[in-house]
Design brief:
Blueprint: H1 3-16, H2 22-38, H3 40-47, E1 52-53, E2 59-60, H4 67-90, E3 105-108, E4 111-114, H5 118-147, E5 160-162, E6 165-167
Antiparallel strand pairs: 1-2, 3-4, 5-6
């Protein structure tokens, strides 16, 4: 299995894993894998890389996704997923899809039936999306910070060692 397939399997097994059977698991992993393949560009934009989906199923540049890239790409997917679920929960809440009155609470005598509210469900998904966005922002920040290389070396940083002593190009640096 290629990098994207392995990542999709990891996302499904670790984040969701509520399959009702092998066929359901396979179809969900395939769906996640398709989304990841189509959105490699988002990962490239966040972390300044040049990964691309290749016809042989391998990711380029040479090498595989490292753990950091996998974690960032997973958060990109989860952020998208939670935002989509939030929109899906709100679909039809205005009554435009049907004319039925949506009930939340029914009570007759001692019997009480309470149903979850679509807006509450949507808020939960929205909060999960915000949490995922915040985690993504931090992961990208630290990835770019630790992967960056200096553009220029000047001053004392430019000192180099010759036979156990440091050579200084300017005598006033101590």
């Amino acid at each position: 299995m290629n990098d994207i397939g392995n990542l999709a399997t990891s996302i499904w097994d670790n984040e969701f894993g509520d399959e009702t059977g092998a066929l359901h698991r396979t179809s969900e992993i395939s769906s996640i894998s398709g989304w990841l393949s189509a959105n490699v560009g988002q990962l490239n934009n966040y972390i300044y890389t040049s990964f691309s989906g290749a016809s042989d199923g391998q990711m380029y540049p040479v090498g595989k996704f490292q753990l950091e890239e996998q974690n960032i790409f997973s958060q990109i997917y989860l952020s998208h997923y939670y935002k989509k679920q939030s929109r899906n929960a709100l679909r039809g809440i205005d009554g435009s899809l049907n004319n039925d009155i949506d009930w939340i609470r029914l009570q007759e005598g001692d019997s009480l039936i309470v149903r979850s509210n679509k807006t509450d469900v949507s808020k939960i998904y929205r909060d999960l999306g915000k949490e995922s966005d915040e985690k993504l922002k931090n992961l990208v920040y630290y990835y770019n910070l630790y992967q960056s290389k200096p553009r220029q070396v000047a001053g004392r940083d430019g000192d180099f060692e010759i036979s156990g002593k440091y050579s200084r190009s300017f005598p006033y640096y101590r």
